[in-house]
Amino acid sequence: MCTYSKRMQVKPMNNEAADGCGELSVIDSLVQLSFVIQSILGRIGADHDLSIVQIRLLGILRDREPTMLQLARHLGLDKSSVTGLIDRAERRGLVERTATPNDRRGFNVRMTAAGRELVRTAGAEIERQIMDVAASLSAAERAQFAALATRLIGAPASGEP
Amino acid sequence: MCTYSKRMQVKPMNNEAADGCGELSVIDSLVQLSFVIQSILGRIGADHDLSIVQIRLLGILRDREPTMLQLARHLGLDKSSVTGLIDRAERRGLVERTATPNDRRGFNVRMTAAGRELVRTAGAEIERQIMDVAASLSAAERAQFAALATRLIGAPASGEP
DNA sequence: CCATTTAGTTTGTTATACAAACAATTTAGT
DNA sequence: ACTAAATTGTTTGTATAACAAACTAAATGG
Predict the structure, then answer these.
(1) Taking phi first (over 0 means left), then psi (-120 to 50 degrees means alpha), and beta for anything else, what does residue A107 get?
(2) Exposure pattern of A82-120 as b/e (b: 16+ CB <10 Å)?
(3) If B154 and its partner were Cys, which of A18, A91, B32, B141 is the partner (CB 3.0–4.6 Å)?
(4) Cβ contact (<8 Å) for B74 and A11?
(5) What is the dihedral of CA B52, B57, B61, B62, to 10 degrees?
(6) How close does chain B come to A141, measured CA to CA in Å?
(7) Are B145 and A145 within 8 A, CB to CB?
(8) Which among B15, B7, B63, B59 is positioned nearest to B35, based on CA atoms?
(9) C-beta of residue A47 within 8 angstroms of C-beta of residue A123
(10) Mean pLDDT by 10-residue block, N- to C-terminus, for chain B (161 residues)?
(11) In chain B, what residues touch A132 (CB-CB under 8 Å)?
């Protein structure tokens, strides 16, 4: 038997690895694939002292300057968690709080030049490593995969409105 | 432009959502998909007071009784981290340390009945929610997706031997 | 102009992860 | 057999991460 128990693992225990296991179910393949990708993100993040949440933060700030609360919503975190997240990022000079025009309470969060630089290099590494994974498919298959995955992502995911 | 900056986000900021964005690149689709899945795992885990690592732990223990060190390797954690992980799981009665036959230093870690019960219910919920996501594809497309994903997972992922 | 929201921070608690130092065993070398 | 070296886990100290509840300051609505 080779399905269920593998679902939660990044890598199978023995080296009767992915192939020795035949075709995975959609569910298993989705879960395992997510761990493979997250593990790449985590490893490259760690190389640059970035957690996955920080990587996501920088990704969001790439073309936006949201308020703390907007960040909290988009990251799915409590606002108090975002305070700490931004504190640490700001201490490292990756990000800065700027005053908002109309509201003297809130800030907008903006990425600094240093932050952009870091995103650029880390992003390139991530791109490279994921491309390595994707290289096991032909160009046509990759396109097909991307098309299917895009539709999967489009699904409401059983949460918010 | 709609590719790069979206890569690190779970959900796009505005609701010009996934569709409004056209086809994602393989890289973007992989990263986003991984966040969708991880978010499901995280949410259901949270419902049962389980972190994603704990979910993985229970998944591994489903059909194995590894030593602490084996667990550390398979989870990609330091051995000292595993001590804490197992301590907490043991305190909750999900897991227990058992003596190993030949080595008086080490233990094997075994899931308890309570642990199995929890895995069963949480696993079913995860399965359901991921199936909801997968439901946006036809059965044939799901099979196709699973086939492609299985091959992606088979790729060495640029780490260990 | 006061009552209520709203935006963020502070405080306290818990989980998580690592590294370095340590204890107890096992394994090797001779 | 007996010591030296390696292995298995735990402990200790530090940092990040996340939450919830209490709190401050500013905006909004009657």
Answers:
(1) beta
(2) beebbeebeeeebbbeeeeeeeeeebbbebbeebeebbe
(3) A18
(4) yes
(5) 0
(6) 8
(7) yes
(8) B7
(9) no
(10) 39 39 82 93 92 94 95 95 95 94 92 95 94 94 95 63 34
(11) 155, 157-158
Q: The whole model's pTM is what?
A: 0.83
The identity of residue B58, as a single letter, is: L
Q: Are B59 and B53 a contacting pair, CB within 8 Å?
A: no
Which residue bears the tokens 């059965």? B139
- Which amino acid appears at position A141 of this protein? E
Structure tokens at A108: 């907008």
Q: How far is the CA of B148 from the C1' of C2 (A)?
A: 64
Q: What is the pLDDT of residues A108-161, one digit of tens each?
A: 999 999 999 999 999 999 999 999 999 999 999 999 999 999 999 985 544 333
Q: Torsion-angle region of residue B49: left (phi > 0), alpha (psi -120 to 50) or beta?
A: left
Closest residue (Cα, C1') to D18 = A81
Q: What is the residue whose two structure tokens read 């330091």?
A: B78
- A97: helix, coil or strand? strand
pLDDT tens figures, B6-42: 444 443 333 333 344 567 889 999 999 999 999 999 9
Q: What are phi and psi of A35, to 5 degrees?
A: -70, -35
